[in-house]
Amino acid sequence: MQAVLVLAALPVLAGAWLPWVLLRPNRLAPGEYLRLPPAWAAALLVLAFLPLLAARWRPALTWVPATLVLLLAVWLLGTRTGAALVGQAEFARASAASGAWLTLLGAGVAVYGARLCTRAAGGPAWTGLLWVAGLAALVLTGTLSSWSVLVEGRSEGPRWVQELLQHLRLVGTALGLAVLIGAPLAVWASGRERVAGAVLGLANAVQTVPSLALLGLLIAPLSALANAFPALREAGVSGIGVAPALSAMTLYALLPVLRNGVVALRGVPPGAVDAARGMGMTASQRFWRVQLPLALPVWLSGVRQAAVLLVGVAAVAALIGAGGLGTYIFKGLQSAATDLILLGAVPAALLAVAVDAALRGLETLLGRRLGRAA
């Protein structure tokens, strides 16, 4: 655990002396790199080692300096970008430079290491909420309002919200279709070795195809279907847009849903099934009352993996006109605008983390309930 804190200190040390802010007259123009004032650079150098010292002398309190490092890094990013824009034109942009990114990386690793130390020392489990609350307070008070990514977000306004909702619709719809298709297939294949091999082999083969290639391969057949059946075209099916995006995303999500479903159902203790059979339950009753509840935590793990996977694939789907946060990523790549890339990439990453945390919590809850029931 202390090795993690040593690794966390190194990026903070480097970030204290590297440029922190890139000031540009507009989104696309080259700019000027600005460094931290010496006093703040020295403060970061001191704070970089505090989590390591706390881990040696008071492990249960390691979270305090680690949280301070993270919050100071975010506060400095907000204040330095704000100071850089003083007296600049309306179109000027102040973005994070290499020093800020390295410091934030080191601070994040420090928070992770501090969490491990606090747990090992028997410290309180609620400490992780403090840095979350601190970051939320910095954002809500407008400390980061001058950061170029948030400036771009305000300028996009309702369009960004629209793309975020489209991203969520794509992920939710594709995940629902994958579960709707994969769940019956998993139940069918769980008791048939040959069927399981064929179904899982086909799903594995789909996973080997790059997402961009799969989207391209679906353009021709879906265009042909739309031309052959006008009703499909009227329903919105075409070679580009939502239809090929949902088709590709559903195919990608099938493997984790199928694989975990088969493993979960096969892992149900035979004694539980025999006991249910001895009580006179029918095959349907055994499945819904015994097998499915016992298999659900493991099966839900596959659904979680599929959901996180789909958040990333949905970003690629913007290339064929499906919309979503990937629109900003590719728009930024085309115009070499890093701020627009981050405007799409950062929310997509946070969305993946949030989905993973929510479904992981549901897994834990179901596991505890089953444990108490047993």
UniProtKB/TrEMBL annotation:
Stretches assigned to coiled coil: none
Annotated Pfam families: BPD_transp_1
Keyword tags: Membrane, Transmembrane, Transmembrane helix, Transport
Record domain ABC transmembrane type-1: where: 164-359
The keyword Transmembrane helix is assigned to this record: yes
Protein location: Cell membrane; Membrane
Superkingdom of origin: Bacteria
Bilayer disposition of the protein: Multi-pass membrane protein
UniProt cross-references to InterPro entries, sorted A to Z: ABC_transp_perm/SBD, MetI-like, MetI-like_sf
Transmembrane segments: 38-55, 60-78, 98-117, 129-150, 170-189, 209-229, 235-255, 306-330, 336-359
PANTHER family xrefs: GLYCINE BETAINE UPTAKE SYSTEM PERMEASE PROTEIN YEHY (PTHR30177:SF30), GLYCINE BETAINE/L-PROLINE TRANSPORT SYSTEM PERMEASE PROTEIN PROW (PTHR30177)
Family: Belongs to the binding-protein-dependent transport system permease family.
Protein name per its UniProtKB record: ABC transmembrane type-1 domain-containing protein
Species in which this protein is naturally found: Deinococcus seoulensis
